[in-house]
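Issue: copy button drops trailing tokens. Both records pasted manually instead:
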Amino acid sequence: MSAIITRRMPARDLGRVAAVTLLGAVLASCGSEKAPQAEGRPVGVVTVEAGQFSDDIQLSGEIQAKKDVGLAFRIGGRVLERPVNVGDKVKAGQLIARLEPALEQNALAAAKAALEAAHGEVDTARNTFERQERLMAQGFTTRPRFDQAQRAQETAQARLENAEAQLELARDRLGFTELRTDVDGVVTARQIEPGEVVQPGQVVVQIARDDDRDAVFNVPAAVLDTHLSDARIRVALADAPAVTAYGSVREVAPQADPVTRTFAIRVGLRNPPEAMRLGSTVVGTIELTTAAIVSIPASALTQQGRSPAVWIVDPAKSTVSLRSVDVLRFDPGTVILSQGLEPGETIVSAGIQALHPGQRVRPLPGQRPSQRQQAAAALPP
């Protein structure tokens, strides 16, 4: 009996050893399966960056003077000469045109003669009044004669003042026969020729002032609704794009053109180059900038119910959570968001199909932080 027990003991020990070995293998296999889960699921990630989205609108226009001055005679008459032509540069005080001055010269001579006669009447009336005044003091004249002499003196004085005014008017009218410019500029149009009879106020020549220049464009109504007054506009010559200037809208036409249904806008240029001459064809680029927005890769967008969403990575726990976002617009390869994300947050851009809230993730092997920055879609300038 004791011999039999001695033979079975090794068998039981062998079974115990096998059971322990099997349990160790199972535990080892379980540990090997949980290790990758502890590291997290590999995904592509990007860091959210904020910027401004801008659209460029290009328009064709021309260079015009900021102010055009139409010169005209103050009086009518026959044009004697017009020494300037279209394209001439003129200086302030330069003669533009002259009327035949014969009538005004005769009127001036008549006014001078009337003034001399008025002076004589005043001297006579003053002497008469002084004599009546002495006689009145001595009692040798009557009150009616004294009053008559006084009124005669006052009337003569009034006629003298009127004659002086008529003389000044005659001198002014003679000066009005010469038309001179009071600004520097370039003659852009002429409306009369020597020998023609003009009326007062009829434009003789048009002068574009040299001080400032505008770029004039015709824009559709839709462009006016894009905060055009705040836009920065780049203007370049059509035949020389390297010649540029910048400006802003200073005037918008209140009414559309009846033919083209567009609105004329005038862009005041800041220090335009000399090559931008009047009438030059230019191309204006309107830079319209929005408020701060976020651009993300299109592969990062998913859904939470019916709302668009993205997976947010918690940097402390390396876990993901789903957050709803508002989409402003879709572009090829990118999505523009109006709100929902903050700059500096990390989102999942690749591998979003198999994620669930609270799942641990890790960046794809070899993806360094700088590469994650480069993976984010660049915003338009």
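Record 2 (pasted manually too):
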Amino acid sequence: MIKRWLEQYASPFALDKMGIMGMNRRNISYISRYNPRRLYPLVDDKLETKRIALDAGVTVPDLIGVIEFQHQVSSLLEKIKDWPGFCIKPAKGSGGKGIVVIVNHDGQQFVKPSGKTENINDLERHVSNILAGLFSLGGKPDVALIEALINFDDVFEGFSYEGVPDTRVIVFKGFPVMAMMRLSTEASDGKANLHQGAVGVGLDINTGKAIRAVQFNLPIRYHPDTGRDLLELKVPYWEQLLSLSSSCYEMSGLGYIGTDMVLDKQKGPMLLELNARPGLAIQTANGAGLVPRLRKIEKLGKKAIFNPEDRVTFARREFAVEAQIAPSAKHPAPS
């Protein structure tokens, strides 16, 4: 039993040796150092993020409408009645909280990805809660965004349960350093939220191919609902997606960010949102630590000012799965 415990829980010293970044190091050495606080509103407010993205020519989901005040809540049905599916989300929410996804409706019953239904009164109540700040950072008053659903690419069929899979890329000083795809499950109610039970699939930064998958921080091989082999996953338009994530450095001015993107069947890669305080579960999904990759970028110093395409080329070369394997491991000496 002790052996099993030791295998499951590594000591802080062992984690540090593996290059695993903890919360304190993330907050002090990277977020505080590289993310000017005056720029936080650009990413903490999804409406602002959408504005700067559109200004930069970055594709984002269509905005159906915005509800800012309680007296506007009664207009919700009028805004959504002509849209077969839509998403309601708080502009200042985080971690997927407060997001309601509706995949179809008849004007009276609104169907969620899980098959559960809501009526218009339920949705209006939810919007009122958003405005009251129930899901916002710090509980401050918020606004509700209503966005069109993404038509996710058929290449992901079976990899996600009902909801749209998204790709999280950690970008440091404009360099994409680590990536994963988040796949919704029945447990996560169609949301790509790892804490609620979504599957995290680590991706090779060079190819976009799956290298490892986890759910609730435990390794898995097959999707719990569809049975699809997760290691068969490969994200198309990978270089374009990485270039999009890299360009968010210039767009936002933030040095350490999480970029969340989706692949739409018609529009290709599009930006969902930016996160100035990205979580650390991406390391578990990849089975690798962020620290060695971040340090490699820091060592570049002033030479790190490339255009997005150059930064992507550098990252794909330096952080590819093959590049992380020691030469002796790749080519063992003859016995």
